[in-house]
Design a protein that fits this description.
Blueprint lengths: L4 E6 L2 E6 L2 H27 L3 H7 L1 H9 L12 H28 L1 H21 L3 H29 L5 H26 L7 H7 L2 H13 L4 H6 L3 H12 L5 H16 L3 H5 L5 H16 L2 H14 L4 H29 L1 H27 L9 H19 L2 H11 L3 H33 L2 H20 L11 H7 L12 E2 L2 E2 L7
This protein binds beta-D-glucopyranose (BGC).
The site of beta-D-glucopyranose has 15 residues, from helix 7, helix 15, helix 19 and helix 20.
């Protein structure tokens, strides 16, 4: 379709434009942002299951692992400092995302993406050459700063550059790239674990530099978004960029809309103060709860620690890494299923089906592990049982990847009207990072103390969040963002928070902002 002309529909309007090289470049930036995020999620679990890595940095964990041949499997890898290696990245990302939102707004999206790429490259180099835990963790912190900046700037950049018609697809495109990043990390770990010198972990960690370079180069060549250029006071330059991006001189209508939207956004000085007004209660609650719930599904226990978990349950080195590759592949394929079905089946069907699938699988894992390892953590799995366990985990991952995985990013981004969008996005990113950190930090300790009960614990949360979706999340499929208040107004619970004056004859009168 590249180069072909068609009309672009946005909020009921038809702007002229076509798919241009710039739009294709934006996909590459999206891909590198998602890859960076995913690569980091996937790489640490494999590396922390590699013996040369453990013996260099965490000899006590390695000793415990070796000695626990007949002992408590649940506590084999328990070490606060080992988990800090994994989770430190997310605490840095959380802190960085607040700075990133200021830089992104004041100085543009491009500079934030460039900075993200540089922080990533620096972190990858530090990790690749690390000779001490301090350097290793400093490297993770620098990667975290990269994640914070990239996760804040890339989705905004995409939303503003993409023709409205492709906004949703590009949004989930970011999730797909993330799952591909996790899978690539699993494959890289498998390859590098075979390096005879025992230095494979260095290669795994240093390869994070590849998507980092993609992002640096992408952000050097790409223009900033017209919205951001207007907001910084250069409308003429913005118009030129818009013409280039849309591949046509005729952008007047869209350009005028951007100018008006920017004026309106300026009037709402405090997006943070605005979002706590009662009329935005549904968005505030949902932007806090969705990322929290997404992490309480327990997905990152699998994504971070799959090889460690499989090793804990008695699989060999190779089998553990291969199992992680299998779960990583299921994750990618099921996210594609989500893209194909989200606008036809709707968000609620995917949330509810995915949730039920996860509950059944988690209860299945808890029962199987409980029966085989009991509370003492002593036991083993037969080949058939290990295969069945892998099947349950894959089915769980599939359930997540077509529901809470992509929808956890999509839904918060589409329920907020313009005046609170930046605050809503910042809350979503930071709550997500906070709980990614918490799960990363406490999972191995919880496994040691709660044993197989940990899987019942996560199942319990998925039951709560599935009930929450059933009662409190309205369907938003095919609803233009500026008409979203009609959905809230019609809702049995949230309706009372929405003043009558923002919904006239079923059409949202653009609340406070006249865009
Ligand atoms: C989540 C990540 C998770 C990933 C797995 C994303 O939507 O935010 O925390 O690791 O899905 O694919």
């Amino acid at each position: 379709m590249a180069g072909g002309t068609f009309n672009i529909e946005g909020g009921g309007k038809n702007y002229e434009g076509r798919i241009t090289l710039f739009v294709i470049f934006t996909c590459v930036v999206a891909a590198s942002g998602g890859l960076l995020f995913g690569y980091d999620i996937g790489i640490s679990g494999g590396v922390t299951s590699m013996e040369p890595f453990l013996s260099k940095f965490f000899p006590s964990v390695q000793k415990k692992m070796k000695n626990s041949g007949n002992g408590n499997m649940y506590c084999k890898f328990e070490s606060q400092i080992l988990t800090l290696f994994t989770s430190s990245l997310y605490i840095a990302a959380l802190v960085a995302s607040f700075f990133a939102s200021v830089v992104t707004r004041k100085y543009g999206r491009k500079i934030s993406m460039f900075f993200a790429g540089c922080a990533f490259l620096f972190g990858a180099i530090l990790n690749g050459v690390a000779n001490s835990i301090v350097l290793l963790i400093l490297g993770r912190l620098s990667l975290g700063v990269g994640v914070g900046f990239a996760n804040q700037a890339v989705p905004v950049y995409l939303a503003e550059m993409a023709p409205a018609k492709f906004r949703g697809a590009l949004n989930i495109g970011f999730s797909i790239a993330c799952t591909i990043g996790i899978l690539v990390a699993n494959l890289v770990n498998y390859g590098t674990s075979k390096i005879k010198s025992g230095q494979g972990w260095r290669v795994s960690l240093a390869l994070a530099g590849v998507p980092a370079l993609m992002m640096i180069i992408g952000s050097l060549f790409l223009p900033d978004t017209p919205n951001s250029i207007i907001a910084r006071g250069h409308p003429h330059q913005a118009k030129k960029v818009l013409q280039k991006v849309r591949g046509t001189e005729n952008v007047e209508e869209e350009f005028q809309d951007l100018i008006q939207a920017s004026e309106a956004a300026k009037k709402v000085e405090h997006s943070w103060k605005t979002i706590i007004e009662p009329r935005y209660r549904p968005q505030l609650v949902i932007c806090c709860l969705i990322p929290l719930f997404q992490q309480l599904t327990g997905i990152n226990a699998i994504m971070f620690y799959a090889p460690v978990l499989f090793k804990t349950l008695g699989m060999g080195d190779d089998a553990s890494l291969i199992s992680a590759i299998i779960t990583g592949s299921v994750n990618v394929v099921a996210t594609i299923v989500s893209i194909l079905t989200v606008d036809r089946l709707g968000r609620r069907v995917l949330f509810l089906e995915g949730g039920m699938q996860m509950i059944v699988c988690q209860i299945g894992v808890a029962i199987l592990v409980g029966l085989k390892f009991g509370v003492s953590g002593v036991g083993s799995l037969t080949k058939g049982e290990a295969d069945f366990l892998l099947f349950l985990i894959c089915t769980y991952v599939a359930g997540f990847a077509w529901s809470w995985g992509p929808l956890g990013w999509l839904v918060p981004s589409e329920i907020c009207p313009l005046e609170i969008r930046s605050a809503g996005q910042a809350i979503n990113v930071s709550v997500n990072m906070l709980f990614t950190f918490v799960i990363g930090q406490v999972f191995l300790t919880m496994l040691c103390s709660m044993k197989f009960g940990l899987f019942f614990f996560f199942a319990g949360f998925v039951i709560i969040m599935t009930i929450f979706v059933a009662f409190f999340i309205p369907e938003t499929k095919n609803i233009p963002i500026e008409e979203i208040n009609t959905v809230w107004k019609a809702h049995w619970f949230w309706g009372k928070y929405i003043p009558d004056d923002v919904v006239i004859d079923g059409i949202h009168n653009k609340s406070k902002v006249d865009i």
